[in-house]
Amino acid sequence: MISSADIYLLGSGVLSFLDITLYTQKILRQCKTVFFLHDISTLERFLKEITPNPVNLMPIYYVDGRNRSDIYQDIARHVIEGAEKEKPIALLMHGHPLVYSSISRLILTQCRDRGIGVEVVPAVSSLDRMFIDLGLDIAERGLQVLSAAMAVHEGIVLNPKVGCIFFQIAHATSPLAMRLCETPPEDVTPFKEYLLDFYPPEHVVYIVESAVELGFESRITPLELERLEKAAPAMNYTASLFVPAVMQRQMPTG
Ligand SMILES: C[S@@+](CC[C@H](N)C(=O)[O-])C[C@H]1O[C@@H](n2cnc3c(N)ncnc32)[C@H](O)[C@@H]1O
After folding, report:
1. Which of 147, 209, 210, 240 has the most ligand 1 atoms within 8 A of CB, as the residue to mutate?
2. Are 205 and 228 within 8 A, CB to CB?
3. Global pTM?
4. Mean pLDDT over all residues of the chain?
5. pLDDT for the residue 243
6. In sequence order, which residues have a C-beta less than 8 Å from that of residue 126 and are 6 or more positions away?
7. Shortest-distance Cα residue to atom 5 of ligand 1
8. CA–CA dist 67, 51 (Å, integer)
9. Percent of residues, the chain, with pLDDT higher than 90
10. Is residue 251 very low, low, confident or very high in pLDDT (cuts 50, 70, 90)?
11. How far away, in angstroms, is 111 Cα from ligand 1 center?
């Protein structure tokens, strides 16, 4: 049995349907409607097999050129109106539902005000996949995790002795959705200048894009920080940036 929530906020994990937990699958099977936000064809086929009414909101609302916050508001409204018509329903998102998801935060706030019950279910996030692709155990040196736009805009002070993963590096300076457009190199310059306040120009950083579709490999693009604009074509909607810690030189012994 699943709980008695009206809305389930779920995550599909990262690699197609392979990361979906057993509990999430159970909820997907029992919800009257499952809204989802993906353009991964093998995942879409899987959803058609296990849930009676899967509805992809991505092509309806996620139109390039629209303001991202309007898109998030529209999706939250659509899901809440869905739950007012029939229960239970679910929203299945990429990765983990509480890792960088404005939509989840909007739904939680608005449902609290209206007395609608929401259960958020843990899932595999892109961080989990990136740890594997980078061979990174964060117990070794810790980790800072930030949104690129927020870090630059607020001038957040970084600790270069601790590695950092930046989310949402594509079109970081624009409030508009641009899923299908390449990031222009000039958009990368403010982010690079910000990082140069904390890391040396020759420091090697990594654009990471963990595979999301079956049959594709994860892509890791290493390059020196001072050349970050050259990696603009790799900075797409599902890419993140890993900046390793600057290691202190070993003190001579003896
Ligand atoms: C709106 S956030 C959603 C994150 C998602 N909820 C999660 O759990 O990872 C989208 C950002 O997550 C990161 N991301 C998502 N998928 C990724 C992937 N396959 N590889 C690397 N980073 C990814 C990127 O920084 C991207 O801009």
Report:
1. 240
2. yes
3. 0.94
4. 93
5. 98
6. 14, 94, 95, 99, 167, 210, 238, 240
7. 95
8. 31
9. 84
10. low
11. 25
Q: Which CATH superfamily is domain 126-243 in?
A: Tetrapyrrole methylase, C-terminal domain (3.30.950.10)
Q: Are 208 and 134 in contact (CB under 8 A)?
A: yes
The closest residue, in CA terms, to atom 25 on ligand 1 is 167
Q: Which CATH architecture has domain 7-120?
A: 3-Layer(aba) Sandwich (3.40)
Euclidean distance between CA atoms 75 and 91, whole angstroms:
10
Q: In the structure, which protein residues have their CB atom closer than 6 angstroms to any atom of ligand 1?
A: 14, 93-96, 99-101, 125-126, 130, 167-168, 208-210, 212, 237-240
Strand order in the sheet with 204-209: 143-147, 163-167, 240-243, 204-209, 219-224
Q: Where along the chain do its domains lie?
A: 7-120, 126-243
Q: What is the 3-state secondary structure (H, E, C) of 49-71?
A: HHCCCEEECHHHHCCCCCEHHHH
Residue with tokens 């600790």: 159
Contact residues for 189 (Cβ-Cβ < 8 A; gap 6+): 229
Query: Using one digit for the tens of pLDDT, what is the confidence trace for 88-116?
Result: 999 999 999 999 999 999 999 999 999 99
